[in-house]
Every structure is written in structure tokens, then in C-alpha cells.
Amino acid sequence: MLICRRIAAIWFLTLGCIGLPSIAAMKTASATPALATDSILLDTMSRELARAMSSLGKAPAKDGAAAQPSPYFLSYVVTDAHQVSMTAQYGAISNAVENHSRVADVQVRIGDPKLDNTHGQHRASALSSVTLPLNDDRDAIARSLWWATDRGYGNALENYLQVETETKVRAKEEDNSPDFSVQQAQKADVAATATMTLDKKKWEQELRTLSAVFREYPDIYNDAVLLTLTNETDYYASSEGSSVVEPHTLARVVVVASSRAEDGMELFRAETFEAATPGNLPEEAALVAKIHRVADDLVKLRKAPVTEPFNGPAILSGRAAAVFFHEVLGHRLEGQRQRGDEEGQTFTKNLGKPILPGFLNVADDPTLETFNGIQLSGHYTYDDEGQPARRVELIQDGVLKTFLMSRLPIASFGESNGHGRAQTGRMPTGRQGNLIVTSTKSVPDAKLRQMLIAEAKKQGKPYGLYFADISSGFAVTTRRSPQAFQVLPIIVYRVYVDGRPDELVRGVSIVGTPQTVLNRIAATGDKQDVFNGECGAESGSIPVSAIAPAMLVTEIETQRQPQGNSRPPILPPPAIVGEKAREIGGAQ
Amino acid sequence: MKKKLVWLQIALLAGCGTSIRAQENGNTDAEARRSPVLRAMLEELDRSKQQLQLQNMQRPFFIEYRIDDAADWSAGANYGALTNERDGHQRVLRVIVRVGDYAADSKFGRSDGEVQLAALDDDIPALRYALWSATDAAYKGALRAYAEKQAALKRFETPPNARDFSKEPALISIAPLQHIEIDRAEWKKRVAELSGLFTMDRGLAVFSKDIQYSNASVRAAVVNRYLVNSEGTIVRKAVVDYTAGVSAGTQADDGMHLDRSYSKSSTSAAGLEDARTMRQKATRVLETLRDLRAAPVVAEEYHGPVLLSGDASADVIRDLLLPNVVAAKPDMGTDARTRGAYASSFKGHVMPEFMSVTDDPTLAIFEGRGLTGAYQVDDEGVKGQAVPVIEKGKLTNYLIGREPVKGFPASNGHGRAPTAQAAAPSGAVLILKSSAPETPAELERKLLAIAKEGGREEVYVAETLGPHMTPRLLYRVNVKNGKRELVRGAEIDELDQRSLRSDIVAAGDDAWVTNYPGAIPVTVISPSLLFGDVTIKRANDEQHKLPYYPPPS
After folding, report:
1. Which candidate from B51, B117, B196 shows the least CB-CB separation from A571?
2. The pTM is what?
């Protein structure tokens, strides 16, 4: 899919870590209505799975060769997804697609849970994917599953032989946990969700109206308003006897806009709105107001002074703190990061020890559907390994209690806690769902601001900083290699101690290891804010949420970061051609 | 003197009847501006032409806007059931801004051209906004590229032997808009059935368990392409491609992968095979797969005469000849004329004297069949011209767009571009002919006669080729009794430009048409070709394990 290049670059880079919903991966196709006969699909999956288990590795060995091993585990995950997405730019529809797809991810494991074909670098060897019929054609579904299973078995076999050899030649591994956790079979047969209906003409008109707001802003060079509607049902069946149906619907509006300062600095703003159905999205007036806010922010940013190096106190807004915790803490608490030589293992040895100030608690709760009336993107009932979603207390009173676990065990934890997640076609790993930060040392926002000023005075600083919005990675810079789990401040104000009005600055970047900031949190606000988005990592792009209150940090070091050097457009945009335009264009 | 001749030829071809048609269609600026898309393009182009300039920097000497309104619909099925349906519609714009002049411009590396998604709505402000944004980026890119190119040129003693860009007359040509017209429900049903034929056809019942994949697909793609440039050219044209096909695969008992497919492309849905014929073709794909499983593996190595069907010959011509008769600009710092195998073959023999090759983009229909490679105007706004490329075996011309090469200073209407990409010289409708055509029966007699002369017991006939000229249906012919036997596991070797030059013994009086689908549709019309000395040898492809367990019954 082609989208306007600058915005495409933003989307692409955002995939490094938490970001806005990606539209890059969307396929264009038209939808077929959802079928209510789910049992045929699940039933065919179970039958074919049983047939594979009773056939594979059961043939007698030929000519004295060793018999081929049977798989000890086999699972099918079928994702049936209907998606409608439309985009408007500058008051006109630029893209509208519908897609219906059914893809099966087949997982084959050979060996035993202690050591199997997925060991170490061979993790992906368990997985093969195949496109399934869009209708419930039993024969065609069965034959497709057979084809993928047969291929997957061959691949698993080859990798298992390699794993066996490698294990024999290699010195003992630091973490010799098993390769797969033993879990109880799950049975959950939820009726498939009804097809979400969308009045396409109405929504196209709505998006035109919303994006036409940008026509009033000649200094905004790129804009898009997207609506995506997802109606997805995941069917899970495994040789352990599990059979789970997990429906999921989400309607989402994303607004993105970008501009450039006179010195070439790239400026970027975005907002998202989520709801379970399109009808529950905010009213047009509320959306228009938010879009004006996005546009006004950019216009102000263009004229804002560039930041100076600073080392002193700051407040992260609830939204900024949510993104910050997702990136800086959440990703480092993923179970698989504690295992393997390639991993950072930042917190592996900190279990049971304080890693945050004692007044902070962090949990991940995918079972939570909404928070203060806001739909949470990271909600699910069963994870992508068929395990029930669970609220997990990661950090209690500042002390690290556990990690986000998939079915890949680590030295300290042998079982899943319902956080095995993946994009279709990827192996699940421990991932975040709804990350929730709470505090027992909270004060009203006004008080937090007073504390910031007091702290700045104490440190002899003329001002403290207020981070209103933080994006992740290098989403808005021209850097080609996005560094995962980094954070980039977008909207930052100076809060002066002498009572001057707050001053917006641009080009702020955080210096040093961001984790150090976590230990300098002195107090929090008393209202939690939500960030909804898509998170990209090794197991692909998945929807997530992060919730946190505003936070006062006693010390944060920032510097100026160059972010692009292209000059603003030479001519003004066409809609405002005339005398007024010359003033804006400037470069005649 | 040589140059003059070429010029004269081009001028004559360009003049042929085209101006009359232009007037008939009301091809005027006023007519163009009735299209909202063209109006937005022309308005923004006018503004850019008049005002676009960075202080103390040079102005653009050339600006081109292209908007592709690309609609495509496709459906695919596996094992008897529909697995995907796709309905896409996008407008993609591409802006070229060049600084410098026609002799030395800013096109350098891949920097030339700025791409964006444009509004699907006929909304003039939104369309202009996207063009404005892309124009700004393209102009800045051109200034940078010009400086880099000038610097790069300084590294070489040899100055460029051709100008950078040809100046072409302004052309206004507004073709009617086209839309996808296909019975979607019927074709979805049809591809589902075709992909499941292996289980339905009684004659194939025993074989059906051996089928590993069986799919069918249909695709309709219509691009309404809008092009305007600062020289005054205004074009609206349609690029249309309908393709439907089947493919299936199995493995022989020794693990050898066997694949067969059939597809046909045309300029309309009506031009595709009807349901009955399609079923016959699909059945034959399956039957030949069954036969291939049982067929003997080709012997170690064979050198000798091989007869290629028109189908197989068209593939060989597309792979071996076509890429080399386009005038691709050579690398900087060299004195080469073009790139490729025929870079230094101008006026030389590249085929036997009885062979001639013409590329004629204006040939829209051949023997009742729509040719997808055909067009009236190319993608740089130049009239498509019939170009005799090879005359009596001699290379007399190249297919060229607006990027001149030594001795070829002007376009002959062969600049073609995929959506969102730069134009490059390409074939359109390439037609091979023999001045001494022979009937298929004569060709086969000749094949056997050569074999007898050489004391051979067997020779080969290739009916179809797969990718990389790998034979899919290859027959071993017994020289004594003329009996054909299907063989498997072969690859063709030592079939190259030398073979085309001196090894074609005879050509048929048949004319096989292949419409090659793709981002740039190309048609090749070729007769059967009899080669005197080609190598057929055993392909050493990986022979994977057979399925570990049987498919569901």
C-alpha cells in the first residue's frame, strides 16, 4: 500500500516500538459477510489436528533407518479478520479498502517440552502459515491445514536434528529452562461476534469533514484522518485438547499531521480514538475540536524556540508517562528478554528487589475492557497461545514480582501468565496488553505543578520541564535505524519559577539511559491517562494500551536533537494562492 | 547519413494517421480541463511553471505530473474454495522536476521523481495539494541531484555521448476513461471450481491424492493514466489487463517437484477463455501433471536440434531478445551505446537473414485477440511507433524513450512506466516473422531430417516453458518412428544470443500470441522456432521428501 511518503515513513519507523496503529500492513480486498457456522471451522481444525497427530511419525521405519519422531505438540490458530479502513487527506478520501482473510498459523513441536525444535535461535521453526478458504468448505480447509502441517513437520524435523546436535556440542547454557511450558487444556466456545456494520458513505463524508479542518492550516504539510474497523475472531485448537474461540472488535480513528519549522525540524502530532463499535466513537464536534488542537499544536511548535541543554526537574503528563512506562519498563519485563545470550536481561537478577520508588505499582491487565469509559486496545480474553488472559502484578510497592510470560519458560518462571501474543504469522512471546501504573503518593495536578516549581527553585533552575506528549522511537526524525524502546518528546513546555507563562519548546531529546528516570519519580498526579496504540516487536505488531498518572521527576537530562533539515515548501499550498500566500511562502 | 535515415523513418511513422484521430476526439486543452483530475494537474503545473524557484537557484526546465488512477480486482482459490478476494483503488501521483537543460539535466540515480498518494475524490484542492507537496520535494531533490551529477561527471575523461533528455512535440490525447467490467460472482465461482477440479474430475480421481497444490486466480486491472508536462503535453490513456489462470503441482515418487500452469491475459473479460475452454485447459494441466509423474527422467545430456513451439519461443524471445533491443542508457563515463547483449551490435547480424522483428505498440488486435502490450501514446506522452528492430537479421533500431543514446536522439514512443515508477524503454508488441515460414509438419520433418543426418536416435520438442526457460512439457521424439514421449526433470542450456544469431534453422508459419501481464504489459508474437544445437540436460533441483502423511480423503 502506498501512502504519502512522509507519513509512510512515520508509520514505518513507529513500528519499532509503541506507536500509532499501523496502516502499512493492511491489505486491500473486499469483504465477504461473516458466517455464523463457526463450528465447521473449529471442528475441521480439531479433526485434522487429530489426524495429523495420529499419522505423523507413525509410519514404520524404512530400510533400517530410524523411525521419524512424532510431534509432541501441534496447534492451529486461525485468524478470521474483516477489516474496513478508509483515509482522508486534506478534505478528500485518498484510500478506502475492505479486507476479509483467514490465515492459519500451524505450530509443530518435536522432541519434548524440555528440549524441542524451537530451542534457542530455532524458535520460528515451529511455525508455518497458510491462507484458508473464506467460506466453511470442510474439504478445502482440511487439505490446506494438511499442506501447512506437512511442510511445518518437515521444517520442525530438520530443526530438531540441528538442535539436538548443537546441544551436544555446546557448553551448558546459562538459562537451561525448558522450551515449552506445560499448561492445562482450555475450552472456551464463545459465539462469534456479529459483523460490525459501517455506513460507508456516511463515514467517508465524516472523514472528509474531519480532514478538511487541515485546509485552514497552510503550514501543515501532511495530514491524514484514518478510520479502521476490525472484526476479528481467533480460533485456537491444540493437541493438548484446547479449543478456544476469541472474538474481538475495534473501531479506531487516527489523526496524524506533520509540519516543518523554518530551520527544517520535522514536527509531528497524532491522536487516536478507540471504541468497540463505530457508533461509540466520539461525536464529530469533539473530533473536530481535537483535530484543531493537533493543528494548533503544530503551528505553535513551528514558532517555538529550540530547546537548550537542561538537567533538572520535570513532569511527565499521564499520557507521556504511559508511553514512557510502556517503552522503558514494559518491554524490559517481557519474559523472553530474561533468557538467551542476545537479550539485555536488564531486570533478570532484580526479582524481589525494588526497581521503582516504593509508592508505585505496575500491573498488566488484558482483562480490562475499558478505563474511565475509554476502550482499551490491549484487551483480550485469551492470548495467542490459547491461555486465559490474566491480570499480572508486575511491580508491587516498587518491588519486581514477575515478568510477562508466554509459554516460553525462563529460569524464574515456568508457566504462562496469559501474555503470549503475536501478529498472525509470528511465534508468540511475552508481550504487554494493558499496562497500568498506579501510585500511592498522588497529589492533584495543580499541587504537582507547585512541587515542580519548588524543586526547580531548590535546584537553582529558572524553569522545570513539562512533557505533555511523548512519542516512541525515532518516529519523527530522519534517522534510518529506529532504536527499539526509545522515547521522543513531542510537546514540551518550560514551566518558569518566576511565574512567567509556560513556554513551548521544540527539539527536546532525553539524554542517557531512560531507566534512570524511573528511580527519580518523586510523586504522581491523581488522574490516570490512557494511551492506545500498536506495539511492534519480535512477535509482530499488536494492539496495546498503557495507563499512568502524571509524574514528577526530580532530574531528567535533555539536549537539543536535530530532527531533519529540509526547508519548508517554497510555494504556499494551492488553496490559499493570492496575496496572503506570498507572505506565508516567503521564498520568492 | 545513417542518422538521417533513422530520423526520416521515425518522422514517417509518427505522421501516420495519428493527427486525424487527435482531432476527432476533441483533443484540446479545453477538453482536457473538463476532467477534474487533468484540471487540477494543469492548474498546479501552471503555477509551478510560473513561480517555482528557490532564491539564487536555477528554475526547473521540465516538469511532469502523472496520476495513475489504478483499480484492480482479483480473486483466488485453493483446493476448490475461494481464499482471497481483493478490490483495490488508488490514485498514485508521480512528479518529475528537472533542472539543467535537455543536454545535461538533473536525472541522476534513483532520485528522479516524487511519489504520493492522491485523493480518490475528484476534489481539485486536495489533488492540487498533493501535487504541490510532491513538486516541492521533487524540485529540491532535482537541485541536489544536479549538483551531485555534475560532480560525478567530473570523474571521467569521456564526456556523455548523448544528450540527457529528448525534446518532443507537445501532444494532446484524451482517451475515454475505462472501468473494470467483469462478472465477479461468476468468476469467483469459476476459480473456486477450477481449483477443485482435481477432486471433481472422475478421470483424475486416482491421481487427486497426489496433488499438493491446486489454485486458480483471476485479476482485472485498469489504470487510467493522466500525464501532463511543461512542454504542453496532455494525455489520458488506459492500461488494461485481465488475466485468469490455474496452477497445480505434485511430486514424482523420487521427490522431483512437478509444476504446471495455464493462464491467459487479454484486454477485456470477454477476451479470457470461456468457462468450457478454461475447464479443458485446467483438466489438461492436471492430466499432464499425472503423465509427468509417470514420465521418465531425461538422460544426462543431449546436444542437438530442438523444436520450440510458438508458446515456448515467445518465452525465449521475451527473455533473450527483448531486454537487449531496448536502448538503456549506459553507465556514466563509458562510450557504450546501450547496456545489454546488443550494446555493440547496431547494424550487425543478431538473427538469421530470414528473420525480422518489429515492435508495434499500435497493433491493438491480432487475429481477433486483444493485445495487452499495445497503446497509442507511451507513458512519456510520445506517440507509440512501429519500429523495425531487426530487418533481415540485422539490428537496425532500438526501442527508445526520452532518454537518448548515441545515434538515437529522439523517442520512438517506447517509454513505459509502472505505477509510481520512472519510465524506461520497453517493448510493447514484439512481432517475429520469417521470410520463409514453414508449416508445423515441415518443421517436424526438418527436425527429424537433421537428427538422421547426425545419426541420432532421438530429438526434443519443447511445448511449454516455465520460469527461467525451464521446460515444463518436453517431449523426446523417436527419430525412427516419430513417436513422442513426455519426459521430466530437464533444463535447457546453451540457448542464448548466439543461438538466436546463428542457430535458428527454420521458423514456423504459425504466430503464437503471449500477453505477458505485469506492471508493464508486453505482448510477444512468435512462430515456432527450430534450433540446430541446443543442450538439454538433467536439472539438478532439490528433490524434497514426499509428504510425511497423506492428504485428507
Report:
1. B51
2. 0.89
